[in-house]
Amino acid sequence: MTGAPMRRLRALLVGLSVLGVPLLASAHQASDAYLRAGVDAHGKLALQVDVALRDLDTVLELDANADGQLSWGEVRTREADIAGHVADRLRLDDGRCHLRALPGLALDRKADGVYALLHYASDCAAAGAPALDYGLFRDTDPTHRGLLVVLDAQGQPTGPLRSLTPGGTPLRLAPSAGASGAAVGVDPPAESAPAPGFFGEGLHHILIGADHVLFLICLLLPLVLGPDARHGGWRGRLWPLAGLITAFTVGHSVTLGLASLRVFSVPPSVIEPLIAVTIALTALDNIRPFLGRRRAVAAFAFGLIHGFGFAGPLIELQLAPWAMAGALLQFNLGVEVGQLLVVAVATLLLWPVRERGHTGAWLRSGSAFAGIVALVWLGERLFDVKLLPL
């Protein structure tokens, strides 16, 4: 095989290798559990843990009749298994403290699905400063995170967000005294790294979001591999790229703020298919341009859609307004740094391809691959089926 067919085959293979990297991450909602730590009336450490039923189903097979839907009966009959599974993976590592599940499983519909609400009491005083060893979904989902907020004596969130990585360094829960009584604080062991907080969660959220990453790469492709890409240096490509990324950033910042502050929200059942549509339309414009100078406007509009997809973790933490403002700023900065990392890595991978020539074939094959993946995601999200192992 020689000539044009060979070049197109090489283009397809490189398109698969470059664009396929982010698909190793999950394209659906991030797997997050929400933990609240406080002190009960007896001075004992108490925990509330909210875990997505979809995550529990992957490890406990809660769907007994395999109909693809979880009923209240299926969940209720497995209450002891659910509570025990979570308790076994939330160990207080000093060997003297144990968590005891309290009766009364409850369900809560959050922005990204239904969660089991579990309550635990410990048999040791919070003053003993036990260290929490977090291990939920350690073997099944490496992208999972537990988001811990600490409650004051009135049950209000206080202090920085703590991100718990399965199998990471245990987090020591140390007592702290507030104006209105006992509370619990966090005191990481001396050898542990500083908590990444909301900035780290924003960075994590963009890097594991394959659909967001694929959209960014689709925006980038014509600026590196387009028909006039070889006639200008990197400086000539920088300003158009900066304009597109800025438009996308402004768009998703607006809806991230609105959704996180609960001013306006759209359910994931609507947003997730629309995110797939934004990728498919951007890929189509790369192959058969129809947006022209309106591409920056489209990036802004598509950013409005993606912003709702970013907001999940912030919505569920129920922070006070002043705390939410700071959290939004840090989270958004993390998202922006993640975007810049994605753009920088993709540009480094694509630049040698640009220098070899035949950029049109590379652009078409890479965009076609992205569009096909987006259409598969669209079908999955509209009809609640799983076709890709992502």
From TrEMBL:
Keyword Repeat appears in the UniProt entry: no
Record field: transmembrane: 206-226, 238-259, 265-284, 296-315, 327-349, 361-379
Lineage, opening ranks: Bacteria, Pseudomonadati, Pseudomonadota, Betaproteobacteria, Burkholderiales
Keywords: Membrane, Signal, Transmembrane, Transmembrane helix
Signal peptide (from-to): 1-27
Protein name: HupE/UreJ family protein
Domain of life per record: Bacteria
InterPro entries for the chain: Put_HupE_UreJ
